[in-house]
Prior knowledge:
The protein is α+β, with helices and mostly antiparallel strands. The chain has a domain at 96-182. It has helices at 21-27, 29-45, 47-71, 138-148, 161-167, 174-177, 179-201, and strands spanning 15-17, 73-76, 80-84, 89-93, 97-106, 114-122, 127-132, 153-158. The protein starts with 14 loop residues before the first strand and ends with a helix. It comes from Haloactinopolyspora alba. This is PH (Pleckstrin Homology) domain-containing protein. Keywords: Membrane, Transmembrane, Transmembrane helix.
Amino acid sequence: MNTAVPGPPQRSADLVLRPSMLRYLQAYRATTAMLVVIAVVLFLRGGGVGTLFALLLAAGGSGLMSLYFRRASVVVTPTELVATGLLRRRRTPRGSVTTAVSATMPRSHPRSPTFPHLFVLDGDGRRVARLSGTHWLEDDHRRLLRALGLTPQVLRGVSTGKELARTHPRAVSLLERRPLLKTLLIAVPGVAVAVALVLTSTD
């Protein structure tokens, strides 16, 4: 009996999809390597505070990733589509799922590697499920489309979140529509950690 996917009983599911950790590690191998290097530098050069930051970085990153891959799923039943992420589960009646959009998007910034993304929308254009190419396989995209009986709208070329929002504003998050805000949210904590280490090392 498969108990890995929470939510609807497995016997009622037409399709159960899970993200691929191998795909994720391949997509973010440079980022993962950078975080490992940062943790090692903090441990070797940061003293007690650096060691604490290194341990928090390692434990927090691995813990969140492990939790996500244990929890995340997209389940199609005869009556609904259930998309489960890290923090929430969204249940949508099958009859409300009307549109699928396939878009090739950069991983983080316009010049970064691109990956295929599948957005599943309801009749009001709200995103009810998203299979990001950084951790979902293209075969999962095809299987979900077959299970839902949808033919996707395929966007030509490479689309950023801001560009996708012009035609499907409710498909992407605020951070994807505002890349500068996303950059600040990532950069500011990093700068704060660096400043804290410098101040600590000069005491």
